Structures are given as structure tokens and as C-alpha cells.
Amino acid sequence: MRAKFVGQKNQLSKEEKAVLREFDDREQPKKAKHTSSMEPLAFHLAIVGASIMIGYVLSQLLILFESVTWGGVDRDAFISICTAFSARYDRRYVDSNLILALVAISWNVFAFLVIAPKMIPQLWFERGIGDLGQAMGMTATGLLLMKIADPENQSPALEDFGYSNYCLNRW
Asked: CA 67, 73, 79, 80: dihedral to nearest 10 degrees?
């Protein structure tokens, strides 16, 4: 198929020129009004950047508060207190921590693949994936895995997960 106006761009009819003039004279939007007009990656990177910045500011405020109240503690001690592990502890027990982590991950995967289908006969995957994510770290991980497994929320798994967390994880 050939282009319509190649070599003949000055031969537009009066109606076509009027339509083009109306198109050029229309009011341009001042700013984006919908989130769909923003690139999703840029939006998510902005959220991550804002979270990092807030965390940095909060840690600096805690260090300032600490220096005012306790007379100051060095930064390494503060980080050790916040993470509940000292640097020496991490180096001494790396092998036992790795064994413990591998056993825990193996148990979680075994429980998800073997026990969950027997305990949850209907929609075991959609319901069990949330529990797997929660067992691996935190509730947010379970929710993300459930959203990946059932992006349209067609199963009642998300609602069930919410009720179970409300009943079992009160504190």
C-alpha cells in the first residue's frame, strides 16, 4: 500500500485543510490527568526512591535523637542494634545460619507442594501460595505471590487469606 500524499502535500482539499486547522487549534492539556498516562516503571521507581529517602531521613533523625538523649553512640553500634545482630555474630555463625535457612526454605516448599493440596482441596495453589510467601518472610510477600497467581482475583483466595491473617496474626 502506498502513502496517500507522497509528492502531493500541497494538494489538500479545503475540507481537509479545515480539519487540520481545527486539530492544530485545539486546546492542549496542561498536565497528565490519569495515572495510565505516566510510565509505570518511572512511577514505581519514584515510589522506591521516595521510600529510600524517607528511610534515610528517619535513620538520621534517630541518630540525632540518640546523640541528644544518650550522648551519642557510634554508627556501627546503632546499625547493629537496629538489625539485632552484631557483625561478629554474623561472621561466626554463617554456616549454621545457612543450614537453618536451607532447612526452613525446604520445609516451606515441602509444605506448599505436598501438604497444602491435601489440606486445601479446592484452589490449593491460589490459597497456598499466599501462605508460602508469608512463611518465607512477611505478609506482603504472600499478597504479591497471590496477585501473581490470580491477577484478576477470580478465586476467593485473597479474601480467605485476609480472614486467616485477621484471625491468626493479631499481634
From this structure: -140
Q: Give φ, ψ of 86 to 5 degrees.
A: -90, 160
- Give the pLDDT confidence of 36-89 residue by residue, as tens digits: 556 677 777 888 889 989 988 988 888 787 777 766 656 666 565 555 555 555
Residue pair 165/139 in contact by the 8 Å Cβ criterion: yes
The rounded distance, in Å, linking the Cα atoms of 38 and 87 is: 43
150 and 158 Cβ atoms separated by less than 8 Å: yes
CA distances from 13 to 3, 8, 80 (A): 17, 12, 77
Put residue 6 in one of left, alpha, beta given phi > 0 → left and psi -120 to 50 → alpha: beta
Backbone angle region of 12, left / alpha / beta, with phi > 0 → left and psi within -120 to 50 → alpha: beta
